[in-house]
Amino acid sequence: MRRRRLRIALLALPALVGTVLMATAPAGAVPAESTATAGSGRSHLEDRESVRLVHIHLTGADMLDKVVGAGFDLEHGVRRVPTGIEGEAVVTAKQIAELQAMGVRILGNEESFAWSDEADGGLQALGARAVQPLTHSETVRVVRADWFTTKGQGFLYVEARTTEGQQEEPVVAMQLENDSGRGTPFGFARTMSRFVDSGQYMFHRNLFKLDARPKQIRVTSSTGGVAIGDVSNWLEDAPPPLTANPRYKWDFIDGYKHPQQLYSRAEEIARQYPDIAEIVYLPNRTNGYQRKAQATIGGTGEAAVVVSSAAWGHEGGNDITVEFVDRPGADLPLTVEVVGKAVRVLLAKDASGGLASTAAEVAAALRAQSQGLIDRSHPYRTSTGTGIVASTPGPVALTDFLDQKRVGAPEGEVPRGPATIPVLRIGKHRDGKKPGVLIQAQDHAREWVPATTSLESAERLVHNYRSDRETKNIVDNTDVFFILSNNPDGANYSFYNFASQRRNMTNHCPDENADPARRNSWGVDLNRNYRVGSGHDGYSGASTSCVSDTYQGPEELSEPESKNIIWLVEKYSNIKFMMSVHSNGGQLFWQPGAYIADGRITTPRPPLGDEAFYWQSAARILSQVKAHRQTVVTPENVGGSSDVLYSSAGNVREDLYHTYGIYAFGWEVGGSVYNPDTGNWQGGSFQPPWVGDPNLVSGHAETMEYANGIMEMFRIAAEWGKDKKDPTSRLVPGAGKYSRPVDVRFETSEPATIYYTTDGSRPTLKSPRYEATEFREPGQVFHVTRTTTFRWFSVDSAGNVENNYDPAKNDKRNKYRTATITIRK
Predict the structure, then answer these.
(1) Do 452 and 582 share a domain, yes or no?
(2) How far apart are the C-alpha atoms of 439 and 578, rounded to whole Å?
(3) Is CB count within 10 Å lower at the N or C end of the chain?
(4) pLDDT value of residue 50
(5) Which segments of 651-808 does DSSP mark as H helices, in order?
């Protein structure tokens, strides 16, 4: 069933400014600077501002929302700590000042830092928790109580909610106690952290390091509410991964791969394994790893002229020179001479023989008289161009600034023209009858591990198809589509020019931001360019500023890369699962991914059945990640992305889920790793050293462990495609006679959505849907005060309807479920 596209409230977003990158360059790598900026005649205004890595502290979710809303890119490496939120940022000196003016505290310059062992966050899979739903009247609820171990250390994560949490004066405090095992008393009292996002109370939550697994916890509110909950295991009983089989082939990737290497290997796989693989070429070509040749000519800002070639740099723009000439004489007009690719601007002279051409006048003359060589010519940024232009020492060569080589970048010439993105399709039966799985990597250019993780997964499929039973089952029963790099232009720029590049290379900036010193700030954030919950519709987390790293583009689906995704899922309607692979942060999430900040109005949350299926799948996927080297994606980092991270308007997951009914996951690979030597969590990075301590952060380790998770997603899809079993459900407590009002709820045998009525009518797909008590909680509790008959049916994630009931047909068999609660007063 295809879900209709959703359009929700429209709000105007102000123009936003600023850019903050959260990235860590590879060991030994430094931001490259083109040698073309040096030499006589070139302006210092072309120099890129230097950036540095800083550790930042925000007071809480409100500040995070304001910083993200202002266009600063805090990416995915943020971490909630008891005193607020911490993260890393690559910033210029000006951006540091802007952040400090907003109240952000700069903690220092660091290559990396260790997370505290206590932090806010999280949620465990709905189907795996032991905490029972509470009655309608209780004011405190234990939502999560999860235990996990990693590297020999145990941790307890707790999430609790109070119905009075929104009040500000006095602020409601929550205290946590736990026992030390069955039959022991509660103790070890600690205050929990209150989590408020965009002005709305979410819950209280904390992660605690413990020596022994507790059996139960007790949470007490400062307003008097008390709740007790059982502790559940988080990822503690994972089955062995496929790699545990000695005959299973894995570990194929030997280092980071640029797009040309990724695409070449995809096409080679299709040639080597034609019986199970092929290439699908996406129809919309990218802008290309190419830019117009430019120069900023002039001494000061008011007297500077920005010149851009009509041709791309590699197609002749780089051959153009521009010279400002001071001729002898007086009362001379401004004119332009062109000989071949040499452009000479003969500056005007006044009556006394002084130079008299303003920057604005020179810019206009170049546009009109350069014989088509110059496409754009304008004063520098927001200047009026009233400054008098000085002559240059000689000709200034225009350059596209793409001739640099960053330390450590792979060898090879980067193709400069528009790129055609290949999709590697793997499956024995590629006829549209098997459930499709789309793996999309590297929407964000600087995220190198997602590409190697995806390629490693593809290699495992083709190399083990004939020798491993589980792999054969996957390939025979799924139709997998790999986009190994959805942003090849930006990725090449990240490899060869600027490691922290996030966006594509399409420059939508007007003149005020089009000078070459802005070259690292151009492009569209592809994961803000989609149609549902977008910034254009008033949702938070995307910017209208063309120099922001969260720039949403001039309109929805403005970019060929995002148009290609929509083309793919519309052409191959069997695609039912999608994983958008990003880094870093270690989150695994889904809808809702965006909200309108005023009131925190999210995009529609998935039905309780879909939410439960997401959680069940997440537990399986993350168990396989842990099985590699005990890396735990903690409960705080799983759920709706706007709940565990922040609002990201216009992301691909929202569009694919709400428009096409695709189970669309977002994955931030490369999360924090617990270091038993220091007792802290080590944060990840976008480009960690490929080889490092096997117990800590490295590109190789992340590639292998997260490939385990992708393989598990394939198994989930294969099982989903073969699922023909109807779900079952029941009302708890069931039908019967009761002497007083009673609380009842629904339970299902598997993740399933329940449609019900209490007015005597037969249930249909238009009937009320059984919902969660609160987001990230189990199903609601009905407080029945008078005799009521419930009629209902359930539908699982694969579309199977309980008891083969057809809600569209009004037959007399009435295969829906029914139960009457009789209240005798």
Answers:
(1) yes
(2) 6
(3) N
(4) 67
(5) 652-660, 699-722
**Helix pair 652-660, 560-571: axis angle to 10 deg:** 30
Please count the other Cβ atoms lying within 10 Å of the Cβ belonging to residue 658. Answer: 22
Integer CA distances (angstroms), 765 to 753, 769, 805, in order:
10, 8, 11
With cut-offs at 50, 70 and 90, classify the pLDDT of residue 355: very high
Distance, CA of 665 to CA of 614 (rounded, Å)? 8
Catalytic residue ranges: 668
Verify that 82 and 154 share a domain, yes or no.
Answer: no
In a domain, 411, yes or no: no
State which residues form the domain around 40.
Answer: 35-115
- Fill in the amino acid letter for 305: V
Identify the band that residue 23 occupies on the pLDDT scale cut at 50, 70 and 90: very low
DSSP H helical ranges for 332-437: 359-369
* pLDDT single digits (tens) 200-218: 999 999 999 999 999 999 9
Q: State how many domains the chain has.
A: 5
Average pLDDT for residues 151-177, to the nearest whole number? 92
Query: pLDDT grade, residue 629 (50/70/90)?
Result: very high
- Pair 546, 659 in one domain: yes
Using alpha carbons, list the distances in angstroms from residue 473 to 477, 613, 719: 6, 21, 9
Q: What is the CATH number of the domain that holds 146?
A: 2.60.40
The H-or-E segment that residue 265 falls in is helix 259-272
Calculate the alpha carbon distances from 574 to 136, 458, 482, 498, 722 in Å.
42, 19, 15, 38, 14
| pLDDT one-digit tens code per residue, 367-425 | 999 999 999 999 999 999 999 999 999 999 999 999 766 656 667 778 999 999 999 99
Top-confidence residue, 669 or 36 = 669
The whole-number pLDDT of residue 10 equals 24
CA 217 to chain centre: 33
- Where does residue 622 fall: left (phi above 0), alpha (psi -120 to 50 degrees), or beta otherwise? alpha
Nearest alpha-carbon partner for 68 in 688, 552, 740 = 552
| Contacts with 602 (C-beta within 8 Å, 6 or more apart), sequence order | 592, 594, 595, 640, 642
Q: What's the pLDDT at 408?
A: 66
- Look at residue 744 and give its three-state secondary structure: strand
Whether 814 contacts 762, CB under 8 Å: yes
pLDDT of residue 405: 67
Cα distance between residue 28 and residue 153, in whole Å: 33
The reported pLDDT for the residue numbered 682 is 84
pLDDT band at residue 35 using 50, 70 and 90 as cut-offs: very low
Determine contact, residues 208/118, Cβ cutoff 8 Å: yes
Q: What is the mean pLDDT of residues 250-273?
A: 97
d(CA 149, CA 155): 6
Beta bridge partners of 482: 424, 439
> How far lies 692's CA from each of 26, 53, 689, 696, 700, in Å?
12, 21, 6, 7, 8
**Residue 342: closest CA among 373, 367, 314:** 373
Question: Would you report the helix, strand and coil content of the chain in percent, each value rounded to 5?
Answer: 25, 30, 50
**What is the Cα 761 distance to its own chain's centre?**
43
Q: Is 813 exposed, middle or buried (0-12, 13-18, 19+ CB in 10 A)?
A: exposed
Answer yes or no: do 736 and 715 share one domain. no
Q: Is the peptide bond before 592 cis (omega within 30 degrees of 0)?
A: yes
> Strands 321-325 and 342-346, how do they pair?
parallel
pLDDT for position 299: 80
Residue 627 in this model has a pLDDT that exceeds 90: yes
Please check whether residues 215 and 259 belong to one and the same domain. no
